[in-house]
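DM from R.C. (forwarded with permission)

"hey, sorry to bug you on a friday — could you get me a structure for this? deadline for the figure draft is monday and I only need the backbone to look sensible"
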Amino acid sequence: ALETFAQFLEQGKAELRHCWIDIQDYPRYKHRGLMIDTGRRFFPAPLVKKILDAMSYYKFSVLHFHISDYGRFAVESLKYPNLASNNSSNGFYTRADVKAIVSYAMDRGIRVVPEVDIPGHALGFGALAKSGDLMFCDHGHVQIRNDPGGRSLKTLKTLLTEMMELFPDELFHLGCDETRVSAACPLAAVQAMEKELLEFVESKGKTPVAWEEVRRRTKANTPKTVIQAWSKYHAYQTTAVGLPTIVCNQDSFYLDYVMTERPPYQQWVDISDKVVEQNMHLVLGGEVAMWSDNWCFDAPCYWSIDKRPPVGQEMFARKNDHLFAKSIQGMIWPRAAIAAGAFWNYQPSLDPKSEEFNATVLRQTEWLVERGVATCPPGCVCDQVTHCGTKLHGLT
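My reply, with the result:
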């Protein structure tokens, strides 16, 4: 409510005196999220808080905290302290950091939903291969193996319990995306592992979330598993079979694509398109996703792009945290603000290619600047290394 009131007052341009204002407004969807990928390039805690501030201006309700991937397991574990052994120079969050971020978010009306991405995308767990706590499908430690002795499942349940105690939200994301099938990890074994872990999360009083492959590929989802649609699925398909859904389709909501590939008008979409009325309650909401592959210099982070160093590689080093903060925020804003509007109350009458829409984007970008957000500047196109066609100051 206070944020709604603040939006009436553009800094230095308006005031309200002796006014009676009756505002009737509410979000169409409960889940209005932004995902940040700390499992590749680390997001320092002060940057996370800046992102949370900007999220609150647009009434985002969820920070999807992707804490493990090819780069690292990004949160301190007391049960497995060696998880952080290869992250000391590139960053990880202490338990105190996590508690402070969760509290900071809560003060701004934002929930923090963690994602431990398993069994694939598991290179960040490499230290547990060396200690023998986890078994892997191959020597590259890309995917955790459901070993016959149950060692991996035992370790993962211990670690997940620790993380579920640290993150209080009802939702807990298990990833389950882009898994591979091999002789050591046949489909039946992958499915069994995912299903057992999803049921384990439920046994702890949480609701599991997973990317769409948990339904489309392994079919390991439980009836309560929230499906995050990103590639092949749309909400009308998952809700038609009774599955709660979060919409994050890459064609609209993957912000790691530069603005020329994902211009702001592509974020103005109806996430419940073609969903029949009786299934609308299953559309929990939507998310935008800020993956950090393009800033991660460790070879595992960019294996999927032909081993070529990513465009933002210079900002992987922690000494360039300030440059990374400017770069990543310029990729997020103002596009995430447009998505937030669609998640709040999409209006089909607003043509995203109209002059009215472009004027709204410009006005909102100016407003972000006024509030101190490191957005892509008004009227500009930004990518990982440039703003308005000029390379970020400090890059070579």
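R.C.: lifesaver. The chain has a mean pLDDT of 91.
me: no worries. DSSP finds twelve helices and ten strands in the chain.
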